Amino acid sequence: MNNNSQNHLNEIVKKDKIFYLDLCNRNLEGNMDLKDFTNLKTLNASNNKFENFDFLNSLPNKDKL
Asked: Per-domain residue ranges for the chain?
């Protein structure tokens, strides 16, 4: 399985400063580890190739998303 989604996230710096993450229309697939996005409030991951959204469980503050 391709994991281009994690590769894309690895290129982002200052993850703890991001409140809004737009990943839509990037043809992403695979799993992502979102644990470093400690201030994330909004995530747009539409129009990709994700088979599930289990990666949301890695969010440190998923109750605030």
From this structure: 4-60
